[in-house]
User: Which sequence fits this backbone?
């Protein structure tokens, strides 16, 4: 004859088995092969091939946001990880643009809401 088990011990064992099953399921899911479509989609997103906007759209939006006075000393280059990189003619203009960074960021975000631009970075370089 078997003796009845302690209900607390049974509950403890069931909880332990449940945790072990969940842990094993996570391990199996992590090792499962990934679908080729998902891998290609991640690669396209990472490299920026799926971005609908072109550099010309970025440049025109930036030129409108910066205005004619500042726009002739800088131009938009690219969006990387949500940060719009702007090429600036010299460090003095980079500093000047830095003072107006918040206003410029809001203006660019309004002009390109799908670009999901979260920040601006000013780099001194040669304008095209």
Assistant:
């Amino acid at each position: 004859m078997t003796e009845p088990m302690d209900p607390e011990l049974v509950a403890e064992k069931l909880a332990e088995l449940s945790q072990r099953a969940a842990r094993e399921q996570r391990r199996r899911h992590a090792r499962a092969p990934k679908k080729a479509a998902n891998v290609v989609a991640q690669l396209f997103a990472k490299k920026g091939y799926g971005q609908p906007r072109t550099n010309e759209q970025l440049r025109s939006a930036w030129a409108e946001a910066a205005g004619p006075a500042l726009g002739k000393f800088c131009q938009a280059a690219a969006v990387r990880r949500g940060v719009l990189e702007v090429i600036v003619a010299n460090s003095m203009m980079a500093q000047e643009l830095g003072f107006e960074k918040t206003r410029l960021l809001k203006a660019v975000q309004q002009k390109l809401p799908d670009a999901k631009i979260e920040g601006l970075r000013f780099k001194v370089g040669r304008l095209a």
Q: What stands out?
A: The domain at 49-124 is CATH 3.30.300.180 (GMP Synthetase; Chain A, domain 3). The longest helix spans residues 7-31. DSSP finds five helices and three strands in the chain.
